[in-house]
Every structure is written in C-alpha cells, then in structure tokens.
Design a protein that fits this description.
- The structure holds 2 protein chains of 2 kinds.
- Chain A is built from 15 helices and 2 strands.
- By secondary structure, chain A is mainly alpha-helical.
- In chain A, a hairpin with a 2-residue loop joins strand 1 and strand 2.
- The longest helix of chain A is centred in the first third of the chain and has 35 residues.
- The radius of gyration of chain A is 23 Å and the shape is globular.
- In chain B, 31% of the residues lie in helices and 26% in strands.
- Classes of the chains: A mainly alpha, B alpha/beta.
C-alpha cells in the first residue's frame, strides 16, 4: 500500500462494505424470476378458481375451461359446476390478474419515471380522483347502466384529476417532481373532503355502495369488465415496457438523463398518461386497492435488481399474483363474508412499507 | 463549443453576464474562480440545464436550442458535480448508461469495448458488479466519470471532477482529460485547485463575480496580482525548480505547526 493517510483508510472501509454488498447482490437472474412468477401465476389462478364455497379440483377447473373452449373432454362438466366456474370465478380471478398487473406495473413505472422510491400512482391523484368520480356517480344516482356508470365515472375522474395535478404543478414549461407530488397531496386532500361531503349526504343504500367501492373489491367482476379493462391494461403495460431504458437513465437524475438524450419533460408526460390509464382502469373496476403499486416493485427490485427491463414486466406479474392470492384469501378466510380486498392489501402492505422505510433509512442514512 | 455574450439569471438576480468562452477540439479549458463566482451557473447554461437570459451558446456552429436531446448527447457528455443514483444499479450498469445515446446506431457495436475502457481508465473495473449506492464518495465520482467517458463524445464537460478524489485519482482524472484532448476532443473542466488547472489546461478562464476577468494560457492568467484580488487572499505563484511547472500557493501569515512539539 503505497498511498498514505486517507487513501489507506478508504481502502479499509471498502473491504467491509464489499462483504455487505456481495451478500446483498446475490440477485436472481431475470429469466428465473419471470419463469417462477409466470408458473406461480398460472398455478395460483387454477387453484383460486377452484377454491370457494363450491369447491372444484384443478382437474375440474381445467375440464370446464377446455369444454368452453370447444375441446372434447370426454366427461363434460355439470351445469352448476360450469356456471360457478365460468360465470363467477374465472371472471373474478381474471379481473384480479388484470387489476394486479396494471397496479404493479404502474407502480414500477411511477417510481422509475420520478426516480423516487416512494412514488405511488395514488400520489398524483389517480385513485382519489377515480374515487371522487365513482362516489359522485353513486350519489347522483347514475344506476342507469348498473356498475358501468360508476366504473366509467371513476375512469374519467381519475384521468381528469391527473391532468389537473399535472397542469397545476407545471411552470415555465417544466414540472418539478417535488411540486408535482405536493400538488398531488393538495388535490388528494381536496378530493377526500369532497368525498366526505358526498358520503355525509348519501342515503343508506348509497353509503353501502360507496363503502364497498372505497374499500376495494373485485367481487363485481364480469366477463364484460374483464374484456373492457384487459386490453387497456395490456396496451399500457406493453407501452411502459418499451420505455425501460429511459426509466433506467432517469435514476441518474433529470439533468443527467437529459444529457444522455432523454427528452425528460415529454417522456414524463408519456409515462403519466400510461400510468394514469393503467391505474384508472384498474381502480374503475376494483375500487381503491392500496399498497400494491408501492410495495410490489420494491420486492421485485430486491430480488432481481433495479433494471427496468425486468422490473416492469416482473412487477406486472407479481402484482397479478399478489391480487389473485389476496382476493382468494379475502373471499375465503371468513366465508361466507368477505374481507374487503383493499383492506387486506393495506393490512399486509402498510407494515411492510414501514419496514422498508426503516431498512432504507438504516442503509442510506435517511432520505435526501 | 462557443459561448457569446452569455448572461444567466437565477430568480431575478443576474449571476453571470456577458461571457465569451470557446472550447475547441483538442484543448482542455479550465474554468476557475472563487466560491459563488458563477462557475456552476455558467456551466449550467453552457450545457442547457439553465435558460439563457442573453447571448448564445453554439455547438458545432449550431445554436444549442436547435439540437435534440439525443443529438446533443452524441456530441457532448456532462459530468455533474454531485452524483445521484436513486436505485441500487451496479457500477457496470451505470457506466453502460453512458452508451444510451448510441442505441440503434452503428456505434452501439462498440458498447462493450467502450464500457471496459472507461472502467479501466478510471480504475473502477474491480467493482463493476457492486451497487453504486454502496460505494464511497470518491469511488462514486470515478464511476460517474467512467460513464461520461463511455459516452465517447467530442466534447466533455466536467464539473469539479477531482473534488472528492485522493491525490492519485485526481492525477488519473487530469491525465484522462489530457488524453481526451490529445485524441482531438474538447474538454471543459471546472477546477478548484489552481495548480491542477495550470498542469492540465491549455487555457484557463478565471471567473469572478459573474464575469471572466482573465482567459488564456495558465502562465498568463494565473498571476499573483490577479489571483490575490479575485480570491481576496495573497497568492504566490512559483515555478517548480526542476520542471518549471506552475505552483500556486496561498500566503499564510498564521504560524505553521511547530516541529518542536
């Protein structure tokens, strides 16, 4: 060691760090994680479809699906089995997949495009705006088209609120992240107050609908909902997955990303639109499901590292898996009643989030 | 790159005014000056981070505003003063990000070689697989420099690249800057250490209170009278007895630690 003084001390410090980091960075290979998640999702889906008050084995589930797809299964399933599986369970589980995939991917995209590990789609007002739209539709008595009017109002409310947050936080043709997030906090408080007011003014039946909606649930799944929302979610996830290189660059900070060729302002607008579409479409059919968009990307990042090329699709798969499992627990744990799905995800997600905060704080000495 | 009559305002305050500065291919230009003289602000304007209140900045003869972000990124790399990485990317991943502007071009074939060279040049190849966020400040600074080198641009802008580094790695950085200039690239570097500026720069621009008070070869700019006034501190400039290299020393009227103790 020829270098004197501080250099020597530096080198000593590095040796200790190296052990910690080496242990921490035993990341799983991307394709392994993707394969595990994909297989896990398929298995969870088949099992979830079978579980419930009316129990069906995986074989029976597969025979119903095969029968419906026009395959010859030899021994056709009975009409009751067919009806429960095909008309009730499968739409519900498929909607869980769509909602979870959209929320997980939107969360990862949000954290990436704002280079902020605490960013969550809800922060920019999508969820609260959607809630406002839904509650307004319920209180105004728009039951004309059944749940569609509520879902539609939620979707529009979510998108309008994001647009409002974005416009309000923009100045001199630029959007500062902190301003955007604080504007979101302000708008969220405002929508919360208006929702409170409407809740206060609603009658008992409306109150029940509002509560059901704000606590989050996929119980009102139908094939038509799946078929409307799935294309939006799939397109959103695919667009997000084409932007992964730029998301990586943004973690170097706005300026460095710009110096590496990213048109940051335009890119953020694109990502906001994608995130808003994903979240609003999920929230519109499921109500408010907390913490999936925040926690799932963190877990995936711990397992596979921060590169967005894997993080985005893996977060979509993991989010889908999380909601499929959570909803199965929600509807079976205290059968015949159901735990509201949003309550369950928050019960699990919130403590995890707090642990995450402490862990990161211990590592990095707090947030800048 | 050339700046003509550039002025920049932050808030309502004019931080730098009427700056003319050029960086030509094959030369290292050092930007020096006391704290608060406007170095970072000027640099911000030169790399389009800050809007101009007056004047123009041109790259390859075209105004900066007419280039797209990607076109700029293929011609000019910028090392920020404070490295930021939000998520625990590895050193290798970060240096590879420097190749982003070349994605989809023929130059993308050189990615692996450029990354490897940049890692070697900055002496960070050994921790290529470690997380950036777990490195020491000096190591992080070198990784960021490697990323800038890997970008392979004809102009390199370095904001205080030596600030966090030990003596050996400061020399590595200065030598790297010289090598890039020798290879025909232009280098603009902000430095605090005037001796370093004298050692590696073809020209030194001395900034004081938002204006360039002197610009030219080191031995013409780094003169005791000017430096003493700009830094408000008596400064001596000596020639090294053997190499003739310029040594810039602050005059000290407080007593040094006594050898008797």
């Amino acid at each position: 060691m020829s270098a004197p003084g501080t250099t020597g001390a530096d080198v000593d410090g590095d040796v200790d760090l190296e052990d910690v980091v080496a242990a921490d960075h035993a990341h799983v290979r991307p394709w392994v994680l993707m394969a595990v998640l994909a297989v896990g999702l398929v298995v969870a889906t088949i099992v979830a479809i079978g579980i419930g008050a009316f129990h069906a084995s995986p074989g029976e589930v597969l025979s119903v699906i095969a029968d419906r797809l026009g395959l010859d299964v030899g021994n056709p399933p009975g009409p009751l089995l067919d009806s429960v599986i095909w008309d009730i369970r499968i739409p519900r589980v498929l909607l869980s997949i769509v909602v979870g995939g959209a929320l997980g991917c939107a969360g990862a995209a949000m954290q990436g495009s704002f280079a902020n590990p605490l960013a969550e789609p809800g922060i920019i007002g999508v969820s609260s705006g959607a809630a406002l739209g839904a509650v307004a539709a319920i209180v105004a008595g728009f039951t004309l088209f059944d749940t569609w009017s509520v879902a539609g109002a939620a979707f529009i409310g979510g998108l309008l609120t994001v647009a409002l947050v974005y416009v309000a936080s923009r100045s001199n043709g630029r959007t500062e992240v902190v301003t955007l997030i604080l504007t979101g906090v302000g708008i969220n408080a405002l929508t919360g107050a208006v929702i409170g007011l409407m809740t206060y003014l609603s009658d008992d039946a409306q109150l029940r609908s509002i509560t059901f909606w704000t606590l989050g649930s996929v119980a009102q799944a139908t094939w038509s909902k799946v078929l409307v929302v799935a294309p939006i979610a799939i397109v959103g996830i695919l667009i997000a997955c084409t932007q992964t290189r730029k998301l990586d660059l943004l973690s170097l900070g706005e300026r460095s990303a710009r110096h590496l060729g990213v048109d940051v302002e335009r890119f953020r607008v694109l990502m906001l639109v994608v995130i808003a579409l994903l979240t609003a479409s999920a929230v519109a059919v499921s109500g408010i499901i907390l913490f999936v968009g925040l926690v799932v990307p963190h877990v995936v990042r711990m397992i596979v590292g921060p590169g967005h090329r894997t993080l985005l699709p893996a977060s979509a798969l993991a989010g889908a898996l999380a909601i499929v499992v959570a909803d199965t627990i929600a509807r079976t744990a205290i059968a015949p009643s159901e735990i509201p799905l949003g309550v369950l995800t928050a019960l699990v997600g919130a403590p995890f989030f707090l642990w995450l905060l402490r862990r990161t704080r211990a590592r990095q000495g707090g947030w800048a | 790159m050339g700046a003509t009559a550039v002025s920049v305002e932050l808030g309502r305050k004019r931080i730098v005014r009427d700056i003319d500065l050029a960086v030509r291919a094959g030369e290292v230009v050092a930007l020096v000056g006391p704290n608060g003289s406007g170095k970072s602000t000027l640099l911000g304007a030169l790399v389009r981070d800050l809007p101009l209140a007056g004047g123009t900045v041109a790259l390859d003869g075209e105004p900066l505003a007419s280039w797209s972000s990607t076109e700029l990124a293929m011609r000019r790399a910028v090392l920020p003063q404070h490295p930021v990485v939000t998520f625990p990317f590895t050193v290798g991943q970060i240096v590879r990000m420097g190749r982003a502007p070349w994605a989809g071009t023929a130059q993308a074939d050189d990615d692996d070689r450029e990354v490897a060279e940049a890692l070697d040049a900055t002496d960070v190849a050994t921790f290529r697989d470690r997380a950036f966020t777990a490195l020491s400040g000096g190591e992080q600074a070198r990784v960021m420099l490697a990323r800038v080198l890997a970008q392979r641009t004809q102009l390199v802008v370095l904001d205080e690249p030596t600030a966090a580094l030990d003596l050996h790695h400061q020399e590595v950085v200065l030598e790297t800057a010289r090598k890039r200039a020798a290879a025909g690239d232009g280098v603009l570097v902000v430095l605090h250490d005037l001796g370093s500026a004298a050692a590696c720069a073809d020209r030194v621009a001395l900034l004081s209170a938002g204006r360039i008070v002197a610009c030219g070869p080191p031995d013409q700019v780094l003169v005791p009278e000017v430096l003493s006034e700009v830094y408000r501190h008596d400064v001596e400039v000596l020639a090294h007895p053997v190499t003739g290299e310029l040594l810039v020393l602050p005059r000290r009227d407080w007593s040094p630690p006594s050898a008797d103790l």
